[in-house]
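Page 42, continued from yesterday. The earlier attempt failed because a stray header line got pasted into the input along with the sequence. Redoing it now with the clean sequence only.
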Amino acid sequence: MYLAILATFSYCILQGMIGFWALGSTQSYTIEIPAQIKVDASDSLEMERRESHEMEYIAAVLAKTPGIKSVEVLPREESLALLEPWLGSGTFLKDLPIPKLIDIKVVSNLKFNMAQLSATLERINPHIRLIDHRAWHQSVASSSTILETTLLFIIGFIVISILGTIAFTTQTSLLMHRSIIEILSLIGASDNYIAQQFQRYALSMGIRGSIIGFILLVLTVISWLWFFDWDKGASFFNIISPQISWLWLLIGIVPFIIILLMMFSAHKTTKSTLEKAF
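This time it went through. Structure tokens are written below.
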């Protein structure tokens, strides 16, 4: 039961991550302005003047472009921070010609004309790129679909394993207590009555397993938050929760459905075994 609850929880987390990331990537674009390479120190002032003029022109263009909600120029320090995991934190990073990045968020892709803005930016500087994140999003969405399918397959496999275990345990118990079952039949106990006893036992096992599973899930989440970073983990859950508020119900619904299936499996197995063996 714990594995089923954990797999369901993982599915909810994955859905939240995909929802949050898709919301940002499909309504976000990046403008990449190539850095100018300094030939000597005398060109520095002239290059800064041209870059400043270019940035002012781009800002004016973006201000007049319909559909844009916000514009944010990524500081050079943040750009360097993005490169550190790949190139290290050496002092040579400061001398690299890092392109300037401008993050723009749009109100709606229907109101935003990407082709028109891209053509306007190319007239300012033919090397400026307007990056659309939707193509990358489609690639990641395909990978996430595989992960979702895998998790659903795991949940289904766990449920089938639980039902198979219940059926095998019930049948074995009936055969081991054959003499008691025969006595109950002789004194008038019906097959439904005997099946109900096994059904109740399956219910009690399911409830106990669900309680233990939820306790282990809480301990797992706490361990995960403690191992990585408590504050970052809490922020992560706060970010994805609005995307999957209704999906959290699955964590409670899945054990409930499994318990019902366990009771059904115990009842059907008992009836079938009694009809064949007794």
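Notes: Residues 29 and 119 are 15 Å apart (CA to CA).
Reminder to self: strip header lines before submitting.
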